[in-house]
Design a protein that fits this description.
- The complex is a heterodimer of chains A (496) and B (237).
- In chain A, the strands form six sheets. In chain A, strands 8-7-6-11 form a four-stranded mixed beta sheet.
- In chain A, helix 5 packs across helix 6 and helix 7 packs antiparallel against helix 12.
- Chain A has 15 helices and 17 strands.
- Chain A is 40% helix and 19% strand.
- Chain A has three domains: 82 residues, no CATH class; 368 residues, Cytochrome-c3 Hydrogenase, chain B (Orthogonal Bundle); 28 residues, no CATH class.
- Chain B has 237 residues and is of the alpha+beta class.
- Chain B folds into two domains: 71 residues, Ubiquitin-like (UB roll) (Roll), CATH 3.10.20.740; 119 residues, Alpha-Beta Plaits, CATH 3.30.70.
- In chain B, 19% of the residues lie in helices and 15% in strands.
- In chain B, the strands form three sheets. A five-stranded mixed beta sheet of chain B has the order 2-1-5-3-4, with helices on one face. A three-stranded antiparallel beta sheet of chain B has the order 6-7-10, with no helix packed on it. A two-stranded antiparallel sheet of chain B has the order 8-9.
- In chain B, a hairpin with a 7-residue loop joins strand 8 and strand 9.
- Chain B is globular, with a radius of gyration of 18 Å.
- The chains are: A alpha+beta (496), B alpha+beta (237).
């Protein structure tokens, strides 16, 4: 199955325009656009050009090494991989309930991660587009331009991120790539002086997070028609929710809806995620294309992340963020909740939620406790799911009787959004590029659509050994001597 | 016993007793000479060459040269540390040392020595040797990717445990490795025990207890507390 504008009927006489690399995203990707002589768009693809392969080389390693190793997938959201793999190993060890200290320290680490990652994305990566305009002067459309034109906004962004990084450092041992979470619990709690240090600034962080929500709301009010229509398309969605339907970014059951808003499943036990999610592959991308099995690979694509989480949950269990959620989902008759750029608004609501959660946890004495590890009855398999800054993150491992990992499957947030990102850029290409002379400002519109998803392309590429391939040996006279193909299941078929 | 004899090490008088090597005397005095294969509990192996010093102008291994009165010994000179850094870089590229995900990180003598010698990169092309992980023992994991061939496990198993479980064998840079004395070649088929001296002797991350990795948080690991040159002890784990 090929989606509209995914593959041109013929590439002859078409001109290729490439955005390479896509800038102000994490990781490396490119967009290729095929245009005819009238600048009519025939094909648009978001390619993920880097390759990681963690699923393969984690095999044969001891299980307790996994939470530390797999977080090297990413320098922006390592905590998410650290915690998802730890949760998988908890399950593998039969630990059904962490100690209160361990769970709260992990949550603190996670909310620190949400805070710093969302601040990084909004202030450093996306605010230049939103504050200066999508087609504004490229020389100023960056964080340096923001520092010059809006120094107070830039300062808040830097300090919000710094605070989140400090939360991570005190819970994980390092700002990036720490070791705090281990199978069955954590290796440290907070020292009283660390707790006091974080409490000192948390109220300011909550206030600045509220300001950020106000800022994106104001931008929507000023640009409602454009923001609402930009890259808009109906989409299914999936996120974790708590047992009572409230938002929970650390743990819960899977909730999903189709593109019309109908519930597909709810409180689904993520330990059996493969019953509802399949993964498709395409020959032009290292990134897989997940889909809801009930809808099939052609119609089952969906999106994850802040927009889905904020609009799917029944409530947010912190008061300021919940109030903002209510206003967001009701804004302009609920239209923004379906807009691609609504991701930015939802992301800031989550940042506020994270700040409020950090405040509450810092006032909970369990975070300075010393009961760090729980034990259980071991089993050979573990699945860990967490809501990472960019969306639902799935880690799945099998471990043998000698403690070595024998199989790993990672479905990363950005991977869930693969088809949605491709659809969004095609919508933008159709609307803004079709029939027009291509300029840098117009091409940036494509990147704005990608940035709305805050993709982490380095995290998301794991299709090792599953890429469909066609190989042909061609003689000097041009005749095909031999050829073979490998399909998406890795099966090789030789053609005589 | 004569304790008044001294030799000069980097302009410092180091006292020694007859029969002590330069390394033993310096260690007793609290002075650091970089080393990896030497351990105070065992006879010198003299293989890593990291403890090479200049004695009266000539190169030699401080772990095997007996101290003599009036010796002039150069230790932490730029010339010697440059050569030591090169040796450590070669050790890094000959094995598969992935510090970012290694549970020994922060407690590893190789890593700490690299920091001490200001090693900023491996410099040489990586060999990426194909080395096995032996997880057959219920309590101990062997990850030969990290082996630096110091042979301390061989000495500990032979001299203290009396089991001779480990031995050096093979030829050539990629062929030489530690062998396990069992019919299958697996540690799980030996009488190795987690309480053996050899179980705690490895200066890098080859012999590690199972299911304990990363239990000590960053900031509290051995070399988080002080660099290796400030932790000179006559007794070592």
């Amino acid at each position: 199955m090929s989606f509209e504008l995914e593959t041109a009927a013929t590439s002859e006489k078409l001109r290729r325009v490439a955005i390479d690399p896509v800038s102000r995203v994490e990781g490396h990707g490119k967009v290729t656009i095929l245009l005819d002589e009238d600048n009519k768009v025939h094909q648009v693809r978001l390619h993920i050009v880097e390759f990681r392969g963690f699923e393969k080389f984690i095999q044969g390693r001891p299980y307790w090494e996994v939470p530390v190793m797999v977080q090297r997938l990413c320098g922006i959201c390592p905590v998410s991989h650290h915690l998802a793999s730890s949760k998988a190993m908890d399950m593998m060890l039969g630990v059904k309930q962490l100690t209160p200290t361990a769970e709260k320290i992990r949550r603190l680490m996670h909310y620190g991660q949400i805070l710093q990652s969302h601040a990084l994305h909004f202030f450093h990566l996306s605010s230049p587009d939103l504050l200066f305009g999508f087609g504004s002067d490229v020389a100023a459309r960056n964080i340096v331009g923001i520092v010059a034109a809006h120094p107070e906004i830039a300062r808040k962004g830097v300090l919000l991120r710094k605070y989140g990084q400090e939360v991570i450092r005190m819970t994980a041992g390092k700002r990036v790539h720490g070791t705090g979470s281990i199978p069955g619990g954590v290796n440290k709690s907070l020292a009283p002086d660390e707790r006091a240090e974080l409490i000192k600034d948390i109220y300011q962080m909550v206030a600045w997070s509220r300001d950020a929500v106000g800022m994106i709301r104001q931008l929507f009010e000023q640009n409602l028609v454009e923001y609402n229509a930009f890259g808009r398309f109906p989409s299914a969605g999936m996120s974790l929710v708590r047992a009572d339907g409230a938002m929970d970014l650390y743990h819960g059951g899977l909730r999903a809806r189709d593109a019309d808003g109908h519930r597909l499943f709810d409180h689904f036990n993520y330990e059996r995620y493969w019953e509802v999610i399949g993964e498709d592959v395409k020959p032009w991308s290292y990134m897989k294309f997940p889909f809801f099995k009930s809808l099939g690979p052609d119609d089952g694509s969906y999106r994850v992340g802040p927009l889905t989480r904020v609009t799917q949950c029944d409530s947010i269990p912190t008061p300021l963020a919940d109030k903002e959620r209510e206003e967001f989902v009701a804004f302009d008759g609920g239209s923004v909740a379906g807009a691609t750029l609504g991701y930015h608004w939802a992301r800031m609501i989550e940042m506020l939620h994270a700040a409020e959660n950090i405040k509450d946890l810092l006032h909970d004495d369990d975070i300075i406790g010393d009961d760090l590890i729980a034990t259980g009855e071991r089993q050979g398999r573990g699945v860990g799911v967490i809501e990472a800054p960019r969306g639902t993150l799935i880690h799945h491992y099998r471990v043998d009787e000698n403690d070595l990992v024998i199989r790993a499957n990672l479905i990363v947030s950005t991977t869930h959004n693969n088809q949605a990102m491709n659809t969004a850029v095609r919508e933008v290409a159709k609307r803004y590029l079709n029939g027009r002379e291509i300029t840098e400002g117009l091409l940036n519109h494509i990147e704005v659509a990608i940035r709305a998803f805050d993709p982490c392309l380095s995290c998301a590429t794991h299709a090792l050994g599953q890429m469909p391939l066609e190989v042909a040996i061609v003689g000097a006279d041009g005749t095909v001597i031999d050829e073979a193909t490998r399909d998406h299941r890795g099966l090789t078929r030789e053609i005589p | 016993m004569n304790t008044t004899s001294t030799f000069n090490l980097d302009s410092e008088d180091i006292p020694f007793t007859p029969g002590q090597t330069i390394m033993q005397a310096a260690t007793a005095h609290g002075t650091y000479i970089p080393h990896l294969c030497w351990h105070p509990d065992f006879s010198a192996h003299g293989s890593c060459k990291l403890c090479t010093v200049k004695v009266n102008g000539r190169f030699g291994s401080s772990c095997t040269i007996e101290a003599q009165p009036g010796m002039e010994v150069e230790n932490r000179t730029t010339e010697l540390d440059d050569k030591r850094r090169t040796l450590v870089q070669m050790l890094f590229v000959e094995g598969n040392h992935f510090c970012p995900s290694c549970e020994k990180s922060g407690n590893c003598a190789l890593q700490a020595t690299a920091y001490e010698l200001n090693m900023m990169s491996p410099h040489f092309d990586m060999f990426y040797p194909d080395r096995p992980v032996d997880a057959s023992h219920p309590d101990i994991l062997l990850d030969f990717n990290r082996c630096i061939m110091c042979a301390l496990c061989v000495a500990a198993s032979r001299d203290v445990d009396g089991k001779n479980i480990f031995s050096m064998g093979g030829r050539g840079l990629l062929g030489r490795r530690v062998h396990i004395s069992s019919e299958s070649g697996k540690l799980g088929d030996t009488d190795f025990a987690v309480t053996d001296r050899a179980a705690s002797i490895c200066p890098v991350g080859v012999i590690v207890p199972k299911r304990k990795g990363f239990a000590v948080p960053i900031g509290q690991r051995t070399y988080d507390l002080a660099p290796i040159s400030k932790q000179v002890k006559e007794t070592m784990p």
